[in-house]
């Protein structure tokens, strides 16, 4: 047999996988093995550290359920989720940001100008803007699918006895690509920190707070859908969001609504504040 | 706020952890984040690949139990366990190899010359040698803690109704550092491949077989203990062990025992074959 040592083992492991030459799987796997082995050699990993790392993954697995995916949370707090969002943002399109764990793909429809908050306490916020393509043309009929936490930082889906479809809605843009609705201004909240990822945050003296945000998936025919979040200027944690979701281009200005102010569209509920955000979609493919 | 993008996010994530300057934890964490982010950028990871990777970890967590640690198995098949063993082998000492999942630290004592097989079917093998320090001095009283699969490739601990302490024993070396005992020649076996790691092996057209081996932990006063495995020349899978446990220096020659052959020590059972292996321990610290 050929001797393997701490340097030649990397090629030996790669060669042990009989993967299709030039395939994406081969590339993903081999590059992963290179980095894993390089990391191990660079830090001169001890057996105790190795076992600590594996037990951390084991603990992440134990606390995970279909509703509590600790590995996604881990990916979030080490900036991996944000990095993947950044890599996959198309030039000219609105920047992507975290999908998060609370999306449901069958949210009810919300009429243009409707109130998503349905009587919830908090600041009534008008959210409006235009869905456009990267040349500036409006995209009539675009679907703005939104979900969010309430005025105390909780998603209805997290609370026993609440309707999980609350604070979720799909809005269809009008003939000029405009969307507008009112909702309650969300509050910041913490990511779950009662598990292994919480231990990691504490070990690194990090907080678990997310800056307040609205979630969006925006779709239009023949355009690449975008998953993103909208944040608000000068709000808490905007500079140190626990999952690195904030981008400068995703921060909207919160402005008070004057008593005399009139809007070029009809609203179900009079807002206290407003913010404008235009979504830009790139073509498919 | 400072804008972060796919290049600056790596430093931002590292800075979010408030870890002690110069600490081992800081070094392990920052080097990990560097490699994770570099990998993600190098392969231009898509959202589908990202989710596939996280679901793979989720599945590893779901199948894991205290007796079935899928993350250790994953570490084994991508050569990480072997690499950590190699990195931690001390110069001049016997090379380390996989601990594996079946070790029990409270194995019964086995007298020098005793038979570990206790009447099991198979080839009776004499295992003998000297435990020495790296200068060649014998280490009297060294403890040779061994465990192994049987003549059909099964560990008693895996089989319902069998004594989990079978085929395990702690042997104390004599005044000249010699150890000797008989046992049954083990057979190759497969690592568990009914879980996500099995899926990975199949995707890479890899088999799940381990070359036949004996496990050892050897300890002596003031010496660094070694965890290793002993393999046999010209046996199956010696060139493509599924967990990369084989090293040239850990392969012993299997030799037939002649009818007339006499041994310089007393044995409980007459062997059919023999192999010699000396263990070399480095000083502690």
UniProtKB/TrEMBL annotation, chains A, B:
UniProt KW keywords: Dioxygenase, Iron, Metal-binding, Oxidoreductase
InterPro entries cross-referenced by the UniProt entry: Catechol_dOase_N, Intradiol_dOase_C, Intradiol_dOase_core, Intradiol_RC_Dioxygenase
Intradiol ring-cleavage dioxygenases domain boundaries: 121-282
Needed cofactors: Fe(3+)
A Pfam family reported for this protein in Swiss-Prot or TrEMBL: Dioxygenase_N
Domain Catechol dioxygenase N-terminal: 24-90
GO molecular-function term, one example from the UniProt record: dioxygenase activity
Name the UniProt record assigns to this protein: Intradiol ring-cleavage dioxygenase
Family assignment from sequence similarity: Belongs to the intradiol ring-cleavage dioxygenase family.
SUPFAM superfamilies: Aromatic compound dioxygenase (SSF49482)
């Amino acid at each position: 047999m050929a001797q393997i040592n701490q340097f030649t083992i990397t090629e030996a492991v790669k060669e042990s996988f009989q993967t299709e030459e030039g395939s994406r799987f081969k590339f993903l796997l081999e590059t992963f093995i290179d980095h894993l082995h390089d990391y191990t050699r660079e830090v001169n990993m001890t057996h105790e550290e190795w076992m600590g790392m594996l037990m951390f993954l084991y603990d992440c697995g134990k606390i995970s359920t279909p509703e509590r995916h600790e590995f996604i949370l881990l990916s979030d707090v080490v900036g991996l989720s944000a990095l993947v969002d950044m890599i996959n943002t198309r030039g000219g399109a609105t920047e992507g940001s975290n999908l998060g764990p609370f999306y449901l793909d069958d949210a009810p429809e919300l009429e243009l100008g409707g109130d998503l908050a349905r009587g919830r306490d908090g600041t009534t916020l008008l959210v409006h803007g235009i869905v456009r393509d990267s040349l500036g043309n409006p995209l009539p009929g675009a679907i703005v699918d939104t979900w969010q936490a309430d005025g105390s930082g909780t998603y209805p889906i997290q609370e026993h006895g609440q309707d999980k479809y609350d604070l979720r809605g799909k809005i269809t843009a009008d003939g000029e690509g405009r969307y507008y609705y009112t909702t309650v201004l969300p509050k910041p909240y913490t990511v779950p920190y009662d598990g292994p990822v919480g231990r990691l945050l504490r070990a690194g003296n990090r907080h678990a707070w997310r800056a307040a945000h609205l979630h969006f998936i925006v779709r239009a025919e023949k355009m690449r859908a975008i998953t993103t979040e909208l944040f608000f200027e000068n709000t808490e944690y905007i500079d140190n969001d626990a999952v690195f979701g904030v981008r400068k281009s995703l921060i909207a200005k919160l402005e008070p609504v004057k008593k005399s102010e009139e809007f070029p569209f009809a609203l179900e509920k009079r807002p206290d504040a407003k913010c404008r955000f235009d979504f830009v979609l790139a073509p498919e493919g």
